[in-house]
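User: Show me a protein chain along with its predicted structure.
Assistant: Here is one chain, sequence first, then structure tokens.
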Amino acid sequence: MKKIVIIFIVLLLIILAFTLKNSFSVNLNPKSASNPGSSNLETKENNEGPVSVIVTPNDLNNGLSGWDFQVVLNTHTEELTADLVTVSVLIDNQNHVYKPLAWEGDNSGGHHRKGILKFNPISPRPKSLELKIKNVGGVSERSFKWNL
């Protein structure tokens, strides 16, 4: 009888362990709120005209090989054909203008596009940034600003 009770308890503990295994997690991501260089910059959205444009800066730490901005374009009325490398610029707080290096994402066309607009990092790190995207969806210029 004692052997059956021990087997029952062991089985019960195994079942409990499997049930609770996804309830606990450890974050091993080195990026944290205590790291002042981490990008906690908010997503900005512009809904002018028939195209919505959503921009989220990724990590803008010094020492990175590039600064990336996630861009999402959505519409239901026209094809999204703009070359985002050609129509975008990044401007720092001293009005220096930087052109993007590349667009890594959806090709032109369609009603939904998303990807990463890539820039060289700016050094020294500016106090603020403004991403301007021109001539998308009939809007001459869209502006997205962040304080760093």
